[in-house]
Amino acid sequence: MADLIHPISIGSLSLKTNLFLAPLAGYTDKVYRSICLEKGAALAYTEMVSCEGVARDNDKTVMLMERGEGEENLAVQLFMPDADTALRSLENVMKYRPALIDINCGCPVPKVVKTGAGSALLKNPGTIRQIVKTIRDNVSVPVTIKIRTGWDVENLNYLKVADLAFEAGASAVCMHARTKSQLYMPTAHWELLKDLKDHFSDNVIIGSGDLFSAKDGLRMLQDAGVDAISYARGAIGNPFIFEQTMALSEGRSLVISTSDKVQAIMHHLLGLVDFLGENTACREMRKHVCAYLKGIPNSAKVRQSVTTALTVDQYKEALSALDYEK
Q1: What stretch(es) of the chain map to CATH 1.10.1200?
Q2: I need a surface site. Which of 100, 101, 144, 271 has the fewest CB within 10 A?
C-alpha cells in the first residue's frame, strides 16, 4: 500500500505527498495548519475566506489568510456568489502570496448558501465556470474547486461541474461525496468519487467525506482511485492522522499516547496565545481540547474543567489530571 502515498503536482505546485488538511471553518487557523503540516500534511487549507470581506479589507477576514509557522505553501479557500466579487478580492488575496487558490462550491451552511455562494453555486454551473476563468486569468497560481455531488440526489451534476471547471482552467477538483441536501449523512458515496476519477483520468481529483482514520484514507485512495485525499472532520483534534496514514501505508501502526496528545494541545494553545492573546486563545481552544481528548478514559472531568479555563495555567492544571500512561 506504500504506493498509495506519493508526491503530487497541482498545476505548477509540487507537493511531497497526497495527504491534505481540508478547510474547516473555526478550526484550520494558521496555528492548527502548522501543526498538521508538521505531522505530515502536504497541504493545509485556510478556513473559508469571504471574497466580499477581502475586497472590503475586513480585518477579521484577511486575518484568516495569515501564513502559519513553517507554512511554505499557503492554500487559500475563497467563497463568493459570482465572478465579479471574486475579481474585486484578488488584489488583496494575492498580498498574502498564496501558493494555490481554492473556490468553495460545496459548503452547505445556510448562511453561506443564502448569499449564493458555497453549494448554491452547484445550481449554476456556468457561474462556477466564470469564477474559475476569472480567477485563473488574473493570478499566476493554480486554481482549484471544492464541490459536492450535486444539490440533491435528483440533481447530481458533479461531472458537468467538473468538466466546466477543468475547461475554464482549474488544476484540480476536490469532491465531498455527498449532496448539499445530505449534509453529513448518510454514508458518503465513494463510488461517485470513482466515477468522477474515471471520467477525468488525466486530471487531479481529490477525495473527501467520511475520512476518520488512516485506514479510511488508504481505502479511499485504493477504492476510489483518487489522486489525493483531504481529511476534514477526521482531523479535528487529531493532527496525528497524517503521520498515521503514512505509517499504515508502510505496514506500521503508529500509536498516539495521552502524553502525545497533551503535548500537541499545549503546542496548539501556546500558538493561539501568540496569535490571539491569552484570553481569546483559551476560549477558542476549548472546542479543540474536547476533540483532542475524545476517547481518552476518564477525561470527562478534564473536558469539563477546560470549558471555563481562561489562562494557560488553568489548562495545565486541568490536563495534569489525565493518566499519562494511557
Answers
A1: 258-319
A2: 271
Task: Note whether 43 and 14 are within 8 A (CB).
Answer: no
CA neighbor of 32 nearest in space, from 177, 241, 311, 212 = 241
pTM of this structure: 0.95
Which regions of 36-151 does DSSP assign to beta strands (E)?
A: 43-45, 49-50, 74-79, 100-105, 143-148
Contact 135, 101 (CB under 8 A): yes
CATH number for the segment(s) 2-249: 3.20.20.70
Cβ–Cβ < 8 Å for 81, 68: no
Query: CB-based contacts of 321: which residues, under 8 Å, 6+ apart?
Result: 301, 302, 305
Contact between residue 172 and residue 138 where contact means Cβ atoms under 8 Å apart: no
Domain topology for 258-319: 1.10.1200
Strand 13-15 to strand 8-10: parallel, antiparallel, or no bridges (unpaired)?
antiparallel
What pLDDT, in 10s, does the model give residues 66-79? 999 999 999 999 99
What are the catalytic residues?
107
Residue range(s) of every CATH 3.20.20.70 domain in the chain: 2-249
Q: For the segment 96-124, what is each residue's pLDDT rounded down to a tens digit?
A: 999 999 999 999 999 999 999 999 999 99
